Amino acid sequence: RKEVEQDPGPFNVPEGATVAFNCTYSNSASQSFFWYRQDCRKEPKLLMSVYSSGNEDGRFTAQLNRASQYISLLIRDSKLSDSATYLCVVNIKGSSASKIIFGSGTRLSIRP
Amino acid sequence: GAVVSQHPSRVICKSGTSVKIECRSLDFQATTMFWYRQFPKKSLMLMATSNEGSKATYEQGVEKDKFLINHASLTLSTLTVTSAHPEDSSFYICSARDPSGRGSTDTQYFGPGTRLTVL
Hints:
The structure holds two protein chains of two kinds.
Chain A: E1 4-6, E2 11-14, E3 19-25, E4 30-38, E5 44-50, E6 55-57, E7 60-65, E8 70-75, E9 84-93, E10 98-102, E11 106-111
Parallel strand pairs in A: 2-11
Antiparallel strand pairs in A: 1-3, 3-8, 4-5, 4-9, 6-7, 7-8, 9-10, 9-11
Chain B: E1 4-7, E2 10-13, E3 19-25, E4 32-38, E5 45-51, E6 57-58, E7 67-73, E8 76-81, E9 90-97, E10 108-110, E11 114-118
Parallel strand pairs in B: 2-11
Antiparallel strand pairs in B: 1-3, 3-8, 4-5, 4-9, 5-6, 7-8, 9-10, 9-11
């Protein structure tokens, strides 16, 4: 089983739609969680951190469920510029060092 | 956010040559940097963790003699792909954590990546 699993996508939705991505992680030692966005042939860029209490940044809402080891990202009123690959990222803290694990990404395409 | 640069952004080389990629943290000091490789339509795969002043830690399956990492200062890590072959063609990305406390201390800032093509 992969350490971080995401919806495979691709998601193709009309502009203005609401879309949700899911991500599950297998290591209960996971300490911190993030959503990154990656545009084609570019580096990943931090979209938002994910907190247990849930957090919102404009049209984006992230949720974390530690009991179910599940993370979600909700995008409301989607824009054409939201088209990208969304990466679920988990930071696992070991006894001596931490390790970042990336999900395989979910591709989102917003159509006019 | 913190800024990480990479150089070169793109390189094309002949099989058998060595290629050096630089990763710099521009406005913070990074004791740890990370090197990733990404094949088309695939996720980032961590290759190694670069530690300032000590040896890099390589992930399983990554040849340390092929991918030489040097982290000689708090703002610079280099990855050298030695005797490159066509199968080494990939997108190489570095990242660094900013320990100064901006955002989460676990937040990684990525360089813009280096696209390597080996002919």
